[in-house]
Amino acid sequence: xWIPTEHEKYGVVIAGFRGTVPHGLSxxxxxxxxxxxxxxxxxxxxxxxxxxxxxxFPSNYIHLKNACVKNKGQFEMVIPTEDSVITxxxxxxxxxxxxxxQLYVRNEGDLFHRLWHIMxxxxxxxxxxxxxxxxxxxxxxxxxxxxARLDWGNEQLGLDxxxxxxxxxxxxxEISITELYRLMxxxxxxxxxxxxxxxxxxxxxxxxxxxxNLGEELEVIFSLFDSKENRPISERFFLRLNRNGLPKCPxxxxxxxxxxxxxxxxxxxxDIYITVHIIRIGRMGAGEKKNACxxxxxxxxxxxxxxxxxxxxGDSKDDLVLKVYMCNTESDWYQIxxxxxxxxxxxxxxxxxxxxxxxxxxLLHGDIEQxxxxxxxxxxxxxxxTRKLGFSNIIMPGEMRNDLxxxxxxxxxxxxxxxxxxxxxxxxxxxxxxxxxLKDFISFGSGEPPASEYHSFVLYHNNGPRWAELLKLxxxxxxxxxxxxxCEFRHCSTKEKGEKKLFGFSFVPLMQENGRTLPDxxxxxxxxxxxxxxxxxxxxRYLKLPFSKGIFLGNNSQAVKTTKESxxxxxxxxxxKLTQNGDMLDLLKWRTxxxxxxxxxxxxxxxxxxxxxxxxxxxxxxxxxxxxxNSQKYGSKVFDxxxxxxxxxxxxxxxxxxxxxxxxxxxxxxxxxxxxxxxKVLKWHIDRxxxxxxxxxxxxVLKAQEYIFKYIVQSRRLFSIATGxxxxxxxxxxxxxxxMSVRFFLSQxxxxxxxxxxxxxxxxxxxxxxxxxxxxxxxxxxxxxxxxDALGSLPTVMHGDESLQAVKLQSIGKTVESHLYTNPDSRYxxxxxxxxxxxxxxxxxxxxxxxxxxxSNIFCLIKKNSSEKSVLEEIDVIVNSLLDILLRTILExxxxxxxxxxxxxxxxxxxxxxFVSCLLSLxxxxxxxxxxxxxxxxxxxxxxxxxxxxxxxxxxxxxxPEMFPKDWTVMRLVANNVIITTVxxxxxxxxxxxxxxxxxxKIWDSYFFLAVIFINQLCLQLEMFTPSKKKKVLEKYGDMRxxxxxxxxxxxxxxxEHKLHFIPALIGPFLEVTLIPQPDLRNVMIPIFxxxxxxxxxxxxxxxxxxxxxxxxxxxxxxxxKGDETYRELFNSIIPLFGPYPSLLKKIERExxxxxxxxxxxxxxxxxxxxxDYRDCMKMGEVDGKxxxxxxxxxxxxxxxxxxxxxxxxxxxxxxDLHLKAQNFTEAAYTLLLYDELLEWSDRPLRxxxxxxxxxxxxxxxxxxxxxxxxxxxxxxxxxxxxLCRKIAEQYESYYDYRNLSKMRMMEASLxxxxxxxxxxxxxxxxxxxxxxxxxxxxxxKEFVCRGHDYERLEAFQQRMLNEFPHAIAMQHANQPDExxxxxxxxxxxxxxxxxxxxxxxxxxxxxxxxxxxxxxxVNHIWRFRYDRPFHKGTKDKENEFKSLWVxxxxxxxxxxxxxxxRWFEVEKxxxxxxxxxxxxxxxxxxxxxxxxxxxxxxxxxxxxxINPLTMCLNGVIDAAVNGGVAxxxxxxxxxxxxxxxxxxxxxxxxxxxxxxxxxxILEFGLAVHEKFVPQDMRPLxxxxxxxxxxxxxxxxxxxxxxxxQASPIHFPNGSPRVxxxxxxxxxxxxxxxxxxxxxxxxxxxxxxxxxxxxSSQASAEVSNITGQSESSDEVFNMQRMLFNHTGDGALPRxxxxxxxxxxxxxxxxxxxxxxxxKEARNTSDSGKLISPPVPPRPAQTASxxxxxxxxxxxxxxxxxxxxxxxxxxxSPVEYHSSGLISNSPVLSGSYSSGxxxxxxxxxxxxxxxxxxxxxxxxTVPSYSVSEEPVRKESKTPPPYSxxxxxxxxxxxxxxxxxxxxxxxxxxxxxxPQLVRxxxxxxxxxxxxxxxxxxxLPRKVSQL
Length: 1904
Prior knowledge:
Blueprint: E1 3-4, E2 10-13, E3 32-39, E4 42-47, E5 54-58, E6 62-64, E7 67-70, E8 77-80, H1 84-105, H2 109-131, H3 136-156, E9 164-165, E10 168-169, H4 177-192, E11 199-210, E12 217-226, E13 231-232, E14 237-241, H5 253-256, E15 257-264, E16 272-282, E17 297-307, H6 309-314, E18 319-323, E19 325-327, H7 336-342, E20 348-350, E21 356-365, H8 368-374, H9 376-381, E22 384-386, E23 402-412, E24 424-431, E25 453-455, E26 466-473, H10 477-480, E27 484-492, E28 500-509, E29 521-526, E30 528-529, H11 540-543, E31 566-575, H12 582-588, H13 597-603, H14 609-614, H15 616-629, H16 631-648, H17 658-668, H18 674-687, H19 695-703, H20 705-723, H21 728-747, H22 755-766, H23 771-775, H24 780-792, H25 802-817, H26 819-822, H27 824-844, H28 848-860, H29 869-895, H30 902-925, H31 928-936, H32 941-959, H33 969-993, H34 1001-1015, H35 1027-1037, H36 1040-1055, H37 1067-1074, H38 1079-1100, H39 1104-1119, H40 1125-1132, H41 1144-1148, H42 1154-1178, H43 1185-1200, H44 1205-1222, H45 1225-1236, E32 1245-1246, E33 1255-1256, H46 1257-1274, H47 1278-1294, ...
Parallel strand pairs: 15-22, 36-37
Antiparallel strand pairs: 1-3, 2-3, 2-6, 3-4, 4-5, 7-8, 9-10, 11-15, 11-21, 12-13, 12-14, 12-16, 16-17, 18-21, 19-20, 23-26, 23-31, 24-25, 24-27, 27-28, 28-30, 29-31, 32-33, 34-35, 34-37, 35-40, 37-38, 38-39, 39-40
Helix pairs in contact: 1-2, 1-3, 2-3, 4-30, 12-13, 15-16, 18-20, 18-21, 19-22, 21-24, 22-25, 24-27, 25-28, 27-29, 28-30, 29-30, 29-32, 30-33, 32-33, 32-34, 33-36, 34-36, 34-37, 36-38, 37-38, 37-39, 39-42, 40-42, 42-43, 43-44, 44-45, 45-46, 46-47, 47-48, 53-54, 53-57, 54-57, 54-58, 54-60, 57-58, ...
């Protein structure tokens, strides 16, 4: 039986469970579970990550954890009772885990690895916390590390900043908002600005001395030297090296590592140096023989120097090698480091052994305790500490030091009867009063233990040696008195014995008899001579002698025997126990000299502060002792001395002695009567503030008032204890009188910044520190009243002294921070006076930073939900006093321009943030009663209106994203919670006071605007949060958007007829709200639209306004990325949605205006479909077809369905930008034409729009024209550019603007040059079908034809499409898909190549037009494309499959011609016809004949660089024919049986026979040409071809060629032989099921690109490798003449008169891709506009210069010899289709060689070898593709175009000189309209200009 659990509520999964049992819950290791019930070893519950799924799991898989349960029962909440840091770590690591994997996916490797390390560290620290074995300090340390890492990770991942207090997360509901703000701000600031360290330390580690010839031990001495002051600033670090130059004690790190501590920031400068002096220990001379002397001396070796600034750059731990220098003369040794620093090169040089000192140096920053924590290993291994000389910058109380620093400076000695100077060594001892040498009190430096004696180094033969060696004597105080230093001088012999002979000594006592120590400074000591064997053990013998020149001991007045020998030392005492100051000693011994008391008290102020603080307690005892004994006489002077000492402790150097003073007052002070004198003297000073001469002194007294009061209070307490509380009333009266004096003094008004205001400022700055002292003696209320009166007496004038006002506010601030204010009783007394001063400052907008701080502190004390009466009363006071001014202050500071400096800006934001947090705190504390009182307090409706407008404006400011840093989500949510609560209270006031006759539009508008931006805030969009974060927010605050949405709905319903004021203004904002994907919110908001439509319908009979606004706003919102599919359904859906409201459509269907409403919804829905697609496409990075197609769809929708011109133009420009980005320049030009065609050549002014300036319509149209021409030029669509050049030239001409006209004509000429000189690649076209419901609306279940990129073949195109649609499945067949594919929830792509069908063949068929020109018309302005699918009908003859081979020809008609505003357009209509086998055969032969003619022509005109393509083509046809190619046709169609069965095909059979004969003629002529050009090594092949040709002729029954010539006159329109074309039989048109006049064989030239023939498969590969070329000869020309003599007029193509004209039925259904619909679009007569814009070619290829091309392109050289009677063989278009998907189908295999193309010949084509070679060499050669003409009779009105480019000016290219010889015709132009057809562009435009043109109708967007 399942039992609810009592204690087992929460656990962690420790083993994975698959949940395979019935009702089992699948669990993973680490999941946390909440347990509901238990039964026999099983639990029932749910995983916290998915609380909706409940199930059972084994209990032994769960590790139970302690937890507390809230809301026991069905909705109980379980909270683990572990450490909050652990809880936070766990949830954070879970969130990070998901994001961490995403980093890997996004390839952010660096952050991925760093986060991985941090996560591992946190897990490790988590384990340490969980184990629970850490000490309190260590636990604190671990938590600090954890939170630092959590914050770092959150910041890196862009997560929220977590507010913490002592490492634990805080609940924002448990603390005041001001405190929350401070915590957030503190963490934010900590993150941004690391605090610079004020203390620094230098770590030194000696590694080795590198030297070639050491052999002696060394001493190395490090110290810091200030070159500016020329003195050492630190003690010395001393270490010894062995003979190898390595430290002597490597096992003791403290012997070779040292830390120079307590360097101030001022000492990290470049003139502070690390100096290293090296002393060797050995023989006198470095090169002496070993046996010369056994005694060892200390001798100079070398010195190294390094500036500390060199370390600041890197803080490097790498070893440094310092160069070691030696002075040139030993006498300069004492200053060698200075010479090196000053670079006095003449005085030193590198040591002879070229020594280098290897050291490791590192600067550490922070106080010494921090260094100990961070570098624990350094201290555990051992390091010696080297201090600064003397006291550090801050003297710490309790610091015990008694160090005497002695510097052995120099000596002056006589020769002593020797011929050379002495080698002097000094030996020093410290001797006590009994004459005993003190052991171990001479320290050479840190790193070496102290010694009992010191030996100086020896300078060779020097009677005036300078040593400058610093020693430290750490002598205890008790041994200091009576001790003296003795220095003995010995001469060191260099003889074999090496004796040291004593010749003199000096001494100096450390303390004088009167107790003063040896004064600091340099002392010249007397050198007393003595004998070599003198015994100095008995010190009493020499202590009576004088020790220093000019100083005598005792009463011994006899003159000292003058001596020239002297010895100088410098002493410096650093002691906390001994003094060198006589005045200090006199004061401390005041009882022995009572007569000197007055003098001693006067001199106290002159004594150095460090001497006073050393003896602070003694000094204070002395002062109060004097006061007790004679207060009348010395009271005032003692008071002054006390004030001096108190103010001395304010100095930063002695600041740390304040606790010493406090301890003294608490524990040692005994002046029970002192309070009377102190109060009296203090009052005396305060009463005399007006006496100017006392001001300075009174200022000192007022500064010290805190401690004076402390002494007064403590004295009174001591008196009360001693007397049992006597004289209490008297004391109270004294204090009252004192404070009355204070009040009077404070109330004095001062004019400007005079001395009185300075005194007031000084008093106020320290007055708050007195409160705590008064509280020790008085009741809280008493003190509060005293303080209230004192602060209340301050003058209220704000225009006085600025500094006084600031101090006054600081005093108020300290009052609020004081202990007095925290007590509720006293707070209620003090609050009015505090608020009064705050109000004044805020009103004047002064000292805002301080005001903000005070307010924050006030609110920090008021916790949330404090329902105590006192708190409610305080809130009352604050609301009445401050709410209004607080709102005004926030408005004022947020409307100011932000300061520019970063520090100032930060301060500015801090102030704003603090005021905002104060306002939020106040509002959160307000209850119903407070709001009611507030609203009732407004006397008039105007005041209430102003207040509401003000608070709504402030709320809008608070909602701004920049109000708080972006990671402060916690703060934003709290703010929003307060705002929504307040708005709910205030909306009542709005309803009661501002409806019906009192309606106020402004306030209601402000309300709705606030509500909308509230709902739209980014921080409330829960859908963007992680699940855990969303859950937390919902638990704490719910979904605030829904609450506000309900409030909007409720308020809207209350408006009644006033709703009309907000239509259509609120449509946009409300629409924005409904786009939020929150179902409840949408259900609340969408009915408002129904209401709006209803009211608008009532008012104006329609809702056009609603519709227009709805559509405009939808567009802008969708572009920003809002909205989703569900939203569209919500508008449209018939299904009732959950919630109280039915869908909008259902509501509309009940209305009388149902029809127009439904229509609007349908329009909006269709627009949304397109906008959603547009938004989704725009999210992708690269520009692709999808983006462009989507924009085209939307643009068409705005024009055709919505007729919104401005939106239409905007999308034109968006499309233009997309094209430019994708380098689709032709499409970009066509797009911009859409806008151009909306404009006229008029002077109408246009407003500034998009990036266009304000200008006339003419100027904008001119600019557009030039931009479009530029784009056509870049897209190599020069023919279109020429038409526009002509148009703009006409305008220039009509205005007589000849300068611009000239430029335009030059530009036009340059475009002609480019047509002739530059190469253009012909694109291929592909049909793409998009099937399935997963495609966007504008593609779904539609088919398109797409213009491919340059060099793009079918496979590449397929791959590109699959990349654009990665989820699509490519269909492998070309059949039309069925309905299941259409309805599938998937994406299917069907792609195959199609062949363009040029509309007009006139240009293509005209003689003599170069291919450069024709190539344009083959692939531009194409509306129709075709695709062939071969199939067998009836029984298939295995012997001859051509008998039953039919072709299904599909013609696709587009909605708009290609190229146009897009690279692809939708197929509007499909036409399918079937071609019989005979028609198929005719077409194959026609195409092959055409190909042969073209190749022969190219060969003749030398356009081929080699003859291979012709060779292969001839070989393919002749060889196939011999093997039965053409013969198969004869077998199939010329047999009697076929003729009888198909009597209707008679003419076609005749036509087939004619084509066979024609092919034979062409082959014969081709062989003749081939013979002249064939290279020698190809001759055998040529001979074989000739032989095979005769075999072929005989198989066709042709015996004599000449016999056929008469029958079929030969005329090559492009120079190739041709059989009579006057009687062309009918063939089935490719235009589908329509019959059309039979076209010329030129119409459908089909050549196979892919076939199964062995030759054809190698053609394109081999052609480019064979480069044979031969010269033309006379025979060839003769043959040409003979052939062309037969040319007749009948060669022009004719239509068969028996056939009806083509059926022109056009499907008029508009498509989403068309700008104009159906038939109407295409049949409008051309009015001077460009016909259907072309699509851009791919990026322009580098064209060869004209001079190179001239010899290759159809050149004058190739044409001129035949001018006149003989036409040249110019290339003619042959190829006319591209590769298709079915080209690889086995069904399609045919024979290349026979000319019977593979059966898909119309959908496949063959690139001639020459074509591929030509393109590689970038030479202009004819391409083979469909021909076309630039204009179409049934002109499809070009869609308007729009584009815009920033730079209007583009350098106009100068025209190339046309390289045409005089005899030649001019190069072909784009056919002039009158030659092509009557209604051409130019004529029509000229015609229209002759008639006065009516003014254009006014447009909707008149100023665009």
